[in-house]
Design brief:
mainly beta; four-stranded antiparallel sheet; 100 residues; 8 strands
């Protein structure tokens, strides 16, 4: 498998602060990418594990049509891990970085 984790800003999103003196957060999409799109057809679900500072650090994505995307608000860069649950019953893992 040549699948990787990709991130970018949600199109049209505007950065914002959640607290008056807080940091500026960006709306970010995290998703799977591959040169061979048919590889994504073999996936049932993806479980992303975010930075420990997130209250809900485990995010489940089951939508093939958006490349198993999840969206978050973040102000920093961090490592993200993903467990990929294949239709065959196998599980594989990939890691990447949230950045924009």
């Amino acid at each position: 498998m040549s699948i990787s984790i990709k991130t970018n800003l949600v199109p049209g999103s505007i950065a914002k602060k959640f607290r008056t003196k807080g940091r500026v957060h960006h709306n970010i999409r995290i998703y799977l990418a591959t040169d061979n799109q048919s590889e994504l057809d073999d996936i049932d679900a993806v479980k992303y594990e975010l930075h420990p500072s997130f209250k809900e650090r485990i995010r489940l994505a089951e939508n093939r049509s958006n490349n198993f995307e999840v969206r978050i608000w973040s102000y920093g860069y961090f490592r993200v891990n993903a467990k990929i649950f294949l239709k065959s019953g196998n599980i594989t893992s990939v890691e990447g970085f949230v950045k924009w």
